[in-house]
Amino acid sequence: MRELQNKRLSQTEELDMQQSQIEQEGLARKKRTTLFSALRTTGLELYQLDPHRDSCPLCGTQGITETVLRKYLEKESAQGSRRLEELHQAVFDAEDGIQNTNSLLKKLGQQEIAAQEYHDALNAVKQRFPEIQNAADLHQEYANAQRQLRTAEAQVAQTRKSLKAELRRSNVPGTIKDVWDSRQRLLDRIPSRYLSLSREISDQELMDAVVGGRKKWEERREESSNLLSQCRNALEKQHDMPDLFAHTLAQKREQLEQMETELLRLERISAFWTAAGPMIADSALSGETVRSMCRYIRGLASGILASMRHEEEKKVSREKMDSIAGKLARCRALHNTLERLQPPKVYAEAFIAQNVAKISRIFLAIHSPQEFSRLDIRDHKLVAFRNEEVVPISRMSTGQRTALVIAVFFQMNLAAPSAPGFLLLDEPVANIDDLNVLALMDFLRQIAITHKRQIFFTTANRNVAKLFRRKFSFLLENFQELRFFREKEHFLRIEKRSYDQSRLLEHPNL
Questions:
Q1: Cis amide bond preceding 369, omega within 30
Q2: What is the spatial distance between Cα 438 and Cα 1, in angstroms, rounded to a whole number?
Q3: What is the four-CA torsion angle of 471, 474, 477, 479, rounded to 10 degrees?
């Protein structure tokens, strides 16, 4: 894979160089065409002025007639076209080579995953069966298991034959499975509080236990039936009492509430007349005294009305307090639930521990060269292995740690059943070298194809954008490119482009 990745890198560089040559050759051809056109026009005008001229109008070489000049110019134009066609053919060949290399890398990646799964399976076999250390031991154990299986099948066949003969002698309808199922259903339906029976109990013991249990059940049923009759008679006598008591109690409560309301009103009126009575009983009242008394009575009446309004407001406030209390109880329940949650670090460590094998495979797929053989958990920490040497994450380079974080990010999206069907990658190649950028692009393409993920990829590097466009151009109209241009301080222009395998179609109005 490293050789193919290096080959792909060299092919990509060669392709870039050839495209650069095409651009240069195109410019040269354009300039050459302009110069030859001017030369053709000037030379032909000179020949028209002097039809018998047999020397070059530029250098004076003898034997250069108008026909010779025309053939030379046509030959030079044809040679330029052939050089441009050769360069285009070389570009097509380079693209085919890159595509073949990508296909080989994809096959090797699949083989690597299969080899890793095979290796994991062998390790699982060794851990579960320590006596198996090699392929010969495994084949021997498999052969022994096959012999034991054949012996057990023969015993089962003999037992089935004996049971069928016993079934025919007992003249019981149904199959052996029906008899066994009926026996199991009988054991399942017997409550453990009445009969405690084992699954391995014999048929005779089962029949004796069922007959004895039936007698006990009949005796208990007779006793329960007599007790139930007595209770039913007593209940029928008192059946109507609760409804009568409940109806009477509701009426009394309603009367009590009305009496309390009326009593409160009477107390307020009594207090009012108690305060106003002495003044009303006085016969020697002047006009000013009457006015003062009226003001006093109006104040008392206002107090009564304010008290009534206060009662209404207190009722409304009590209802609001009850509503707030209910909301407060729900908030406390939510707060208690949130308090019981573990810190995010705990969930992240648990996820990495459960998916370390898949994270390791993704990390090895997007990181080159293969300095590390795998990732694993040691002492509750994620570490890498370099030739069985434990390497902490802190000793990795910045690019390696970036690849590790991206691997964890990818696995979190692929493992979660409710994860969104897209990936947002903002400058993911900022700390990654060119070789690993190619590996990351290949993995993104595999995710898009295999797992049906939509990918949003941002970059400010033109070369990375160009590489990304080449990697995903096979998506045709499903691949779109948005370019952002800040021409003024508060003005942003966006160009949308779609790729059709032959040219970019610009839509400047979008």
A1: yes
A2: 12
A3: -20
Q: Pseudo-torsion of CA 114, 116, 117, 119, nearest 10°?
A: 120
DSSP symbols for 357-368? HHHHHHHHHH--
Q: Which amino acid is at 339?
A: E
What is residue 314's three-state secondary structure?
A: helix
Sign of the torsion angle spanned by Cα atoms 387, 397, 461, 24? negative
- Angle of CA points 80, 83, 84, to nearest 5°: 90
Tell me which H or E stretch contains 458: strand 454-458
In this structure, what token pair is assigned to residue 373?
Answer: 């053989």
Q: Structure tokens of 177?
A: 């499975």
Any residues with CB less than 8 A from the CB of 104 and at least 6 apart, and which?
4
* Rounded-to-integer distance, Cα 446 and Cα 453, Å: 10
79-82 own/partner pairs: CB under 8 Å, 24+ apart: 80/25, 80/28, 80/29, 80/32, 80/33, 81/29
Joined tokens for residue 459 = 């970059």
**Whole-angstrom Cα distance, residue 104 to residue 97?**
11
d(CA 59, CA 407): 69
Question: Tokens 């370390």 map to which residue?
Answer: 356
What are the tens digits of pLDDT across the range 128-178? 777 777 777 778 888 888 888 888 888 888 877 877 777 677 666 667 677
Confidence of residue 57 (pLDDT cuts 50, 70, 90): low
Q: Which secondary structure element, helix H or strand E, spans residue 383, and what is its range?
A: strand 381-386
Measure the CA–CA gap between 223 and 353, rounded to whole angstroms.
Answer: 62
In three-state form (DSSP H/G/I as H, E/B as E, the rest C), the secondary structure along 66-112 is HHHHHHHHHHHHHHHHHHHHHHHHHHHHHHHHHHHHHHHHHHHHHHH
The reply to whether the predicted model has a pTM over 0.70 is no
More confident residue, 381 or 206: 381
The HSE-up count of residue 93 (CA atoms within 13 Å, CB side) is 8
User: Comparing C-alpha atoms, which of 191, 194, 189, 168 is closest to residue 179?
Assistant: 168
Alpha carbon distance, N-terminus to C-terminus of the chain: 42
Torsion of CA 154, 155, 156, 160, to 10 degrees: 100
Helix and strand numbers (H, E) in the chain are: 12, 8
